[in-house]
Amino acid sequence: MTALQIIRIPILPFGMVNSHLILGAGGCILVDAGLPGSESKIEKVLAKHRLTFRDIKLIVVTHAHVDHAGSAVLLHELSGAPIVAHEDDAKHFSGETPMTFCPTGWFGRLFLKTPLMFESYKGFEPDILLSNDNTLDLSRYGIPGTIKHTPGHTAGSISVELSTKDALVGDLIASGILIGGLVRTNHAIRPPFEDDPRTVGLALQRLLDSGMERFYMGHGGPLNAGEVQRHAHDLMTMKTR
Fold first, then answer.
1. Considering just the CA atoms, what is the radius of gyration of the chain in Å?
2. Which of 3, 44, 50, 164 is the most buried (most CB within 10 A)?
3. 15 with 181: CB under 8 angstroms?
4. Domains and CATH numbers, the chain
5. What is the reported pLDDT for 241?
């Protein structure tokens, strides 16, 4: 394995919920742990690439929502890999403070009427806890890239920037109809929930300014830089009530 690969792991059908594997010559990193019970789906994708849980060197949890952190503890136990996250979501990871949700539209409001986002998961303390704007160099895990704080979706949202000009951004952005889906998959939208749209827009703009060209996300995607630029501009110029 010589070239860097980004492998999407479908946690739910049609790109509605995604985790990702980053495969490099010197390591394998899992970005997001999916819903509780996602380990079998992750194992299946690992096996397709002749890998096992023990090949995972690091687990990146981009934020504390259940569809990104739900299987983190079990995957940590199966792989032995450390979990990295940001301290601004730490009280949500531990279960000390319940998540709050700011719907971005009718779909988010409808989603809040279902039990999915309120599903509990086993609490944990990340092994590597980023603070403020500190970064993590991924070269020690065999991947040429960096983890950075990109707040806005939640206070502690983080993203992965790779030397290949690919970014894995969790829920900073989504695409398609009803997140993911089969229609308009190359069109950027806001996810169902978002704490601060302007802060998200600024975070996306910083990623674009650093040279990122392709954006992989938890719902839908991937998207090219031009579409992300359009969306970032819309967020930064939104009128808020």
1. 16
2. 164
3. yes
4. 5-236 (3.60.15.10)
5. 52
Report the pLDDT value the prediction gives residue 181, as an integer from 0 to 100.
Answer: 72
pLDDT, mean of each 10-residue run, the chain (241 residues): 85 92 93 97 96 97 97 98 98 93 89 83 97 95 96 98 97 89 86 95 98 97 96 88 52
Phi/psi for 208 (5° steps) reads: -65, -45
DSSP string across 42-89:
HHHHHHHTT--GGGEEEEE--SSSHHHHTTHHHHHHHH-PPEEEEGGG
Beta bridge partners, 10, equal: 18
And the tokens for 50?
């002749």
- Position of tokens 């169902």? 192
Q: Which two tokens stand for residue 103?
A: 């719907």
Q: Give Cβ neighbours of residue 104 (< 8 Å, ≥ 6 apart).
A: 190, 191, 192, 193, 194, 197
Q: Are 79 and 54 in contact (CB under 8 A)?
A: yes
What letter represents residue 131's amino acid? Answer: S
